[in-house]
User: Which sequence fits this backbone?
């Protein structure tokens, strides 16, 4: 049995990445593929418990260093319980966020913590996606969209527009640093048009 493909979606809050992850999941499912859709932080029982600590509450609830530790712990549980077992049985895994989010959110936008992020990733995770779609969106438009959801999971949106701009720059630099794996997607279009582009890139790449 061949190993499954690992596909991730990244972008700032409100960029539409969750919608695109769901659309790709539906497309592959309808095509008869063995595929699962998961998310971070979360995706396993333990990781979902940690998620509530990270995405709810006051923006100043945790330091950047503490966030890195919590995200890494959640990711390790997600990897052990959900991602690796699925890949080993040949299932395609689509994840709404993975390690790149920590590299950008805590490694770039929350202070100079990239070395800590990379060290913990190498020790505890040591896994990269086969392909990552980075959905780009104007930070102010995305922020308004994210806050309008009123999901109760808006701790990072509450950090404000300057934080969102730093995140957007961080994701742009991520694509530049990993051009073979990371694919830049213009998110300022109709969801259906974006989805078709993603499907075409995926077919060409994998």
Assistant:
């Amino acid at each position: 049995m061949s190993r499954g493909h690992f596909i991730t979606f990244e972008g700032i809050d409100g960029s539409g990445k969750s919608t695109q992850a769901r659309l790709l999941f539906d497309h592959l499912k309808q095509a008869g593929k063995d595929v699962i859709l998961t998310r971070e932080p979360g995706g396993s029982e333990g990781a979902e418990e940690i998620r509530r600590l990270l995405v709810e509450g006051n923006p100043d609830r945790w330091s950047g260093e503490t966030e890195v530790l919590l995200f890494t712990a959640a990711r390790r549980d997600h990897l052990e319980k959900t991602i690796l077992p699925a890949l080993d049985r040949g299932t395609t895994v689509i994840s709404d966020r993975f390690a790149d989010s920590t590299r950008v959110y805590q490694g770039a936008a929350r202070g100079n913590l990239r070395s800590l992020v990379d060290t913990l990733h190498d020790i505890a995770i040591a896994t990269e996606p086969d392909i990552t779609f980075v959905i780009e969106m104007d930070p102010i438009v995305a922020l308004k969209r994210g806050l309008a959801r009123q999901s109760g999971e808006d701790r990072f949106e509450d950090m404000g527009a300057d934080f969102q701009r730093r995140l957007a720059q961080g994701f742009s630099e991520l694509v530049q640093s990993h051009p073979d794996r990371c694919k830049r997607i213009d998110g300022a279009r109709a969801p259906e048009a974006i989805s078709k582009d993603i499907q075409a890139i995926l077919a060409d790449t994998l």
In short: Strands lie at 6-10, 35-39, 92-96, 131-136, 182-186.
